[in-house]
Amino acid sequence: MIGSKMNWANLKKTPTHAVDGSVYAPVKPIAIEGLGVEMTYQSGRQSFKVLKGIDLQVQQSDIQLLMGPSGSGKTTLLSILAGLLTPTGGQVFLRGEDITKMSRSQLANFRLRNIGFIFQGFNLFPALNAIENIEVALNIKGIKGSKAKEEAVYLLEQVGLGEKGKHLPRDLSGGQKQRVAIARALAGHPPLIMADEPTAALDSSSGRAVIDLLKGLAKGEGATVLMVTHDPRIVDVADRILELEDGMIKSE
Ligand code: ADP
Ligand code: MG
């Protein structure tokens, strides 16, 4: 490598050979990091500590899963890591930047440029058709006009909804709405993709399409995917699985 240009794309594909002939994989940068993340919910005079000091790291271009029983704090943790919820303690670094130190507008701007979040609910605009729902997301990210429309149509095709572009959310099934929401979250190629049970409402073939899409984004484009899921098909493609239990990460 000495004297030649270091190229990240090549680095990932070409393991390095040490002088003794052993091969070691290059270290990938940390894309998502939580340090001592705590969350205490307050209801009246009762307080309830859901997260008790979570440390976690997700490497770039990995597909990492967050598992654990219902009520263990998966959605809370994912929301904190995505900057949607402020933790009561600890720090969150996304692509090396401490989001817990950002102002509201800095965080909003950072989220827009970096994070595609797939919610458990769909959060689609009811008066806009499928294409328009995605176009709006692209417009907010600065992609406008025919370019936004083309990208929206392409994304819908990617999730297997090419023919449903003109349909309003009320004329789509739950699984189809979920796929529009996924296409919208992926609009503009966010480097960080976070998803809360994205395939739960999907039949097996559309679930498969979504998994293939996420896998392609991670392995082909270097996107980092952090997902709450119990889908065994996603477990098959995951690089790492973290389990939450009693507000802590269960040791691997
Ligand atoms: P999971 O996604 O693993 O099912 P959640 O993060 O949704 O878990 O919830 C973890 C715990 O925190 C649950 O006991 C839940 O009732 C509680 N909780 C979640 N959100 C709130 C909130 N906004 N206010 C108070 N308690 C909450
Ligand atoms: Mg949840």
TrEMBL record:
Signal peptide limits? none
Protein name from the UniProt record? ABC transporter family protein
Give the source lineage, highest ranks first: Bacteria, Bacillati, Cyanobacteriota, Cyanophyceae, Oscillatoriophycideae
Q: Which residues form the ABC transporter domain?
A: 35-252
Coiled-coil zones: none
Instruction: List, in alphabetical order, the Gene Ontology terms for molecular function in this entry.
Output: ATP binding; ATP hydrolysis activity; transmembrane transporter activity
CDD domains for the chain: ABC_MJ0796_LolCDE_FtsE
Would you name any one GO CC term? plasma membrane
According to the lineage, what is the superkingdom? Bacteria
> Which of UniProt's keywords are assigned here?
ATP-binding, Nucleotide-binding, Transport
Question: Organism, per UniProt?
Answer: Lyngbya aestuarii BL J
